[in-house]
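[retry 2/3] D-inositol 3-phosphate glycosyltransferase: previous attempt timed out, resubmitting with same input.
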Amino acid sequence: MRQCSHTRIHLRHGPAERASAPRTVRNPHHVSDSSGVKAGDPGSAKRPLRVLIGADTFAPNVNGAARFAERLAAGLAERGHDVHVIAPAASGKHGTWKEVHEGQEITAHRLYSWRWYPHDWLRFALPWRIKQNSARIIDEVKPDVVHFQSHIVVGRGLSIEAEKRGIRVIGTNHFMPENMLEFTLIPKAWQDWAVGLAWKAARRTFGRAEAVTTPTKRAAEFLEKYTGLSEVHAISCGIDAANYRPDWEPRTGNRIIFVGRVTGEKQIDVLLKALKLLPASLHATLEVVGGGDQLKNLQNLAAELGIADRVTFTGYVTDEQLRDAYHRASVLAMPSIAELQSIVTMEAMASALPVVAADAMALPHLVHDGENGFLFEPGSAEDLAAKLRRVLEASPEEYRALKEGSIRLIAAHDIQRTISTFESLYRGEPVVDPVTDAAPASLPE
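[retry 2/3] D-inositol 3-phosphate glycosyltransferase: success.
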């Protein structure tokens, strides 16, 4: 059972907005020693590439970063590129084998990993072996480009060893150090110091990349502020909207849905308190889809608030069950305050759901107040309840307009645009960040 991923895994062992100038190349001599691909080489424009993607979290993990890395790998493979992924093993079994993700075969290099027990599922590659492992795999694969998804362990090793070999390096950030504080066991008095160290480490690793990306403009500004980097590209994680079925039938109930990891930074407790504040006449219910370390605490909170009979905790679900859950819902509530880009919100929008989201980080990038939903003051159960009422009490015409707004806005986040942009970065070509925060004038046909 899965939470909100769309993975099918089979193992076989053995026009424009940030019209920016090309990012300053950090290492102009970067050349893949396997192919001789150079920026501007006319012979390389259509040739399939050998891409090595590095990730600290990858399927079967269930989170936005893992999901993006998986979709990117599958999309590149579908276009004929030779795709390799280096990531921690999901169990005690490690090595190199073929895996099939979204119907596409990639080569997975699964590193020996340890479980991080303060977290409910996280496993990590051993930091003191990452440079050795990165060097070995790079020399075996001989990639044209290395694309790391996190600076923490795998990205650090890959960036160091790829830079030594003159291989093009692209870095993408999905991570906020603050999101991991509750799992580090670091005393609160030391947490600001620890966050500072994490951003310094990010600066070193991303500083080796020829191009740095993150999912939204706000996330790019955040990364630039805390690392001192410049010209960070805002490239949406993207979504294949065709995988979701908008439901235009009139709603038959007031069903609120939350989808995601059931952890502290998601602030699901705020959502439970907001549900308590809704008028009884609405007969509103809440479905919490996902699992995590706060599940039992939230079940207890629902009982304490006297709303346990109106809240369903589904745990992990299959892809089809998730699509059905979106169809059952009247509105998605996203109270999290630490989203660099919310794939769940994009999935809900592709399902023609209105969204009520915290006015924090990247969520305003997706939720346009009054157009496809409403933003509420982060942490305020009262404001969340008020904005949920605006959706649940909307007239049929107003509600339909919110649903149409979600479909218009999600059209800008097509996964194929995202993959094409990364292909250009891999080849050293100048790119223009896709427009993702303005809706087209009309609904797509």
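[retry 2/3] D-inositol 3-phosphate glycosyltransferase: The longest strand covers residues 104-111.
[retry 2/3] clearing retry counter.
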